[in-house]
């Protein structure tokens, strides 16, 4: 699209003679570095009113891959409702392309270029995890681990669920210690992610990026994500 200019850390958006800047979240590596056939939406941070957020989606085309460019200073409380809105808009489009994906744009500092995180199938839940369990009594939760990201220094992992001896982790050790905790688990395990709504989008993307490095036999990461307050 001719009105988009990508830089290493900033995205400049030109519209109606006005320049706006999105500070893209930074990651240290990305598995996806190139996407074709795209259109873009933007979530802007307002420096004069930190509690406000502006969505520009005028150039989205339902049959293309979508790049969602979100300012890293926004919180999940601000961002997630807009992401859900865009997901529903694409899903309900009468001109839907089943092969088109949705991606979050990031700045890959290792390559000094753009990187992307796919979130096409992610389901963001408004209800609490306990409410979700109550409403889905047919699901076997015995083989699931839940990771709560409260802050960079407060990460809690429960396996089995509701075990009072939950692992207390931080950003630097949580991948290593989760691998240790699950290393001898013979049965398939699904990891469910839960994020504090007050985390910045930068923090959220950092956690998601680290999880892309996670590889352990019989362990998968759920598409269900919970945003808690």
What does this structure look like?
There is one protein chain. This protein folds into 2 domains: 4-118, no CATH class; 123-228, no CATH class. It is an alpha/beta fold and 229 residues long. The strands form 3 sheets. Strands 4, 5, 6, 7, 8 and 9 form a 6-stranded mixed beta sheet that branches. The protein is globular, with a radius of gyration of 18 Å. The protein has helices at residues 76-91, 129-135, 174-182, 201-211, and strands spanning 4-6, 10-15, 18-23, 26-27, 38-45, 53-56, 65-70, 102-108, 113-118, 123-125, 144-151, 154-158, 167-169, 189-196, 219-228. It has 4 helices and 15 strands.
Count helical runs: 4
Strand content: 35-45%
The run of helices and strands is EEEEEEEHEEEHEEEHEHE
Helix content: 10-25%
Structural class: alpha/beta
Which parts are unreliable, with pLDDT below 50 for 5 consecutive residues or more? 1-9
Domain tally: 2
Whole-number average pLDDT? Answer: 88
Q: Give the biggest beta sheet.
A: 6 strands, mixed
| DSSP strand count | 15
Query: What's the overall geometry?
Result: globular
**Rg result:** 18 Å
Span between termini: 37 Å
Protein name: Lipoprotein
């Amino acid at each position: 699209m001719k009105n988009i200019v990508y830089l290493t850390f900033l995205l400049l958006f030109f519209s109606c003679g006005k320049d706006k800047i999105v500070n893209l979240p930074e990651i240290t590596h990305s598995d996806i570095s190139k996407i074709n056939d795209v259109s873009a939406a933007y979530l802007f941070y307002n420096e004069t009113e930190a509690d406000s957020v502006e969505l520009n989606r005028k150039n989205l085309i339902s049959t293309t891959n979508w790049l969602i460019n979100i300012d890293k200073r926004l919180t999940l409380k601000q961002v997630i409702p807009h992401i859900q809105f865009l997901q529903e808009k694409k899903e309900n489009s009468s001109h839907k392309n089943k092969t088109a994906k949705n991606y979050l744009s990031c700045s890959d500092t290792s390559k000094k270029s753009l990187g992307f995180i796919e979130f096409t199938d992610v389901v963001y839940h408004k209800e609490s995890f306990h409410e979700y369990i109550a409403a889905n009594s047919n699901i076997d939760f015995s083989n699931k681990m839940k990771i709560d990201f409260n802050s960079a220094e407060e990460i809690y992992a429960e396996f089995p669920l509701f075990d009072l001896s939950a692992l207390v982790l931080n950003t630097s050790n949580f991948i290593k210690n989760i691998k240790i905790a699950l290393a001898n688990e013979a049965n398939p395990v699904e990891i469910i992610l839960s994020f504090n709504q007050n985390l910045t989008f930068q923090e959220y993307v950092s956690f998601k990026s680290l999880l892309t490095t996670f590889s352990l036999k019989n362990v998968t990461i759920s598409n269900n994500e919970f945003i808690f307050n």
